[in-house]
Amino acid sequence: MRLIARRGLLTLLSVALLGTVACGRTPDADPEATVAAAETDPQLVFWAALEALCGQAFEGRIVESEPPDASLDGQRQVMHVRSCEPGEIRIPYFVGDDRSRTWVVTTTAAGLRLKHDHRHEDGTEDDLTQYGGDTEGRGADRVQDFHADAFTAGLVPTAATNIWTLEVVPGETFAYALRREGRRFRVEFDLGTPIEAPLPPWGG
């Protein structure tokens, strides 16, 4: 796990260093020193923990849903960390037989971004897709909050104050949550019991 985490840090650092060069700044001349410093950066530690799950799938359960959502509640919940590329991790989220949802986590110059890629069964994009937001500050090793961006506010005005949360407790729990006034949702997945990888997401 330690080796995987360091590989994840190196991958993310390579993306960050490219951005540093593009901005005309000189990157640290000592990669090992940079990695050592990065091991205390909450977002890099979080990314490495997420990347360590790549290729694995897990079953979960909804632990909070207010008000109740009939399209989600009572359905089998599965998440699959399906692909990990430099600067992008894609996590399909399946609800029963519905394979329309994928969480997409990417790096930005300022931090991390979470987007929701929604597809129809034929692979075409849903009208409500690519909404999400960005981190504010560095967050914590295990928890990152994503605040709704301007695109989301324009697409879904009621979601303008959304805060999505991703949480990774290695070997224990992966959680996805949403909160805003009048709406709270949280689903937790058991990282201690990987399951067989599911079918690809729609459009994937």
Description of the structure:
The protein has 204 residues and is α+β, with helices and mostly antiparallel strands. It has 2 domains: 2-49, no CATH class; 54-195, Lipocalin, CATH 2.40.128. 22% of the residues lie in helices and 39% in strands. It is built from 4 helices and 11 strands. The chain has helices at residues 2-22, 31-38, 42-51, 150-155; strands at 57-66, 77-80, 83-85, 88-95, 98-107, 112-118, 131-134, 143-148, 163-169, 173-180, 183-195. It has a 10-stranded antiparallel beta barrel. The longest helix has 21 residues, at 2-22. It is globular, with a radius of gyration of 17 Å. 28% of the residues are buried.
Short summary of the structure?
The protein has 204 residues and is of the alpha+beta class.
> Outline, from the CA principal axes?
globular
Kindly give the count of domains.
2
**What is Rg?**
17 Å
Poorly predicted regions? 1-6, 14-27
The largest sheet, given as strand count, sense and whether it forms a barrel, is: 10 strands, antiparallel, barrel
CATH class of the largest domain: Mainly Beta
Average pLDDT score: 87
- Beta strand %: 35-45%
**Tally of individual helices:** 4
Measured between the Cα atoms of the first and last residue, the distance is 28 Å
Say how many strands there are.
Answer: 11
* Class derived from helix and strand content: alpha+beta
List the helices and strands in order: HHHEEEEEEEEHEEE
Report the CATH architecture of the largest domain. Beta Barrel
